[in-house]
Write a structure and sequence with these properties.
This protein is of the alpha/beta class and 297 residues long. The protein is built from ten helices and twelve strands. A six-stranded parallel β-sheet has the order 2-1-3-4-5-11, with helices on both faces. Strands 7-6-8-9-10-12 form a six-stranded mixed β-sheet, with helices on both faces. It comes from Paractinoplanes durhamensis.
Length: 297
């Protein structure tokens, strides 16, 4: 029989095996975009723990489209995965959050486990990076350096991550007696191109600005690119997340560090662990990492 298996290059039917086993061998991960360095680092941690537990990881890119997330939850449910990890920002819209929560509860009712990274209004365990405190650290650093005319290039306004990080910046502004007027807060995609376009607008529309707080490192890299085209403007730039590229750009990027791989590891550990009597929440602190892209005024 083994000779026939080798000759025919037989591959077992994974769906049939799953039906025959009581053990669910796969886990699902829904990220906004795994090609984004932020989610790539988180996914590294998720896969590390899942692989050590003998699990196959099914990765789904939602591209920040709630309807696509709903479709993926249903798909993963149909595949009888052991757990679903949602690794991306939640949505501020109550109706959207409720629709996602309804699908997740249906999955949970069949024995599936759920964990989320970030602030979500969903059932399941959660790993919460301290985005609000991280925003405060970014703002306090710039104000400590003497920058009072600070602009923010922020991600999409409908995401909880954007809201929380901006809230921290606003708290820092109040403490230092400064202002962050709406005209100096520009929302764009959480991408390098989004950051470059937003900074180009600031250079034209806000000549008084001396510093930029970017709400993720990809946007900050785009800001630095835009500034290279305007050598007469020297602006301090701070990012958020402290992705590996932050050390390698010129100037090296001051950023707020979140342990991205650890976020993934902790979320997958929760998802594969036994369910508790109540949802578990693990908080992860942010830290300021000072490099060359910020300077005293």
């Amino acid at each position: 029989m083994l000779a026939a298996v080798a000759e025919l290059k037989y591959v077992p039917n994974a769906h049939a095996q799953m039906l025959a086993r009581s053990h669910r061998s796969a886990v699902g991960v829904i990220v906004h975009d795994v090609s984004d360095p932020y989610f790539a680092e988180i996914t590294r941690g998720l896969q590390r723990v899942a692989t050590a537990d003998g699990r196959l990881v099914i990765i789904c890119n939602s591209f920040r489209e709630p309807d696509r997330e709903l479709e993926y939850i249903d798909l993963l449910h149909a595949h009888q995965v052991a757990a679903i990890v949602i690794a991306g920002s939640g949505y501020l819209d109550d109706a959207t959050a409720a629709r996602l929560d309804d699908r997740l509860r249906a999955f949970e009712a069949t024995g599936g486990r759920i964990a989320v990274i970030g602030r979500h209004e969903h059932t399941g365990d959660a790993v919460l990076p301290d985005n609000e405190q991280g925003g405060y650290l970014a703002g306090a650093h710039l104000f400590d350096l003497g920058h009072t005319e600070v602009a923010v290039i922020a991600g999409p306004s409908y995401l909880t991550t954007t809201f929380d990080r901006l809230k921290g910046l606003q708290r820092a502004a109040r403490k230092y007696g400064c202002k962050l007027p709406k005209k100096r807060i520009i929302h764009a995609d959480f991408t390098r191109d989004g950051g470059e376009d937003a900074t180009a607008r600031l250079l034209t529309e806000q000549p008084e600005v001396t510093a930029i707080a970017a709400l993720n490192d990809s946007m900050a890299v785009g800001a630095l690119a835009a500034l290279r085209t305007a050598p007469d403007r020297r602006l301090a730039v701070i990012g958020f997340d402290d992705m590996p590229i932050a050390r390698d750009v010129t100037p090296s990027l001051t950023s707020v560090r979140l342990p991205l791989t650890e976020l993934g590891e902790r979320a997958m550990t929760l998802a594969l662990g036994a369910a508790g009597d109540a949802p578990r929440v693990e908080h992860v602190e942010a830290a300021l990492i000072i490099r060359q892209s910020t300077w005293s005024l």
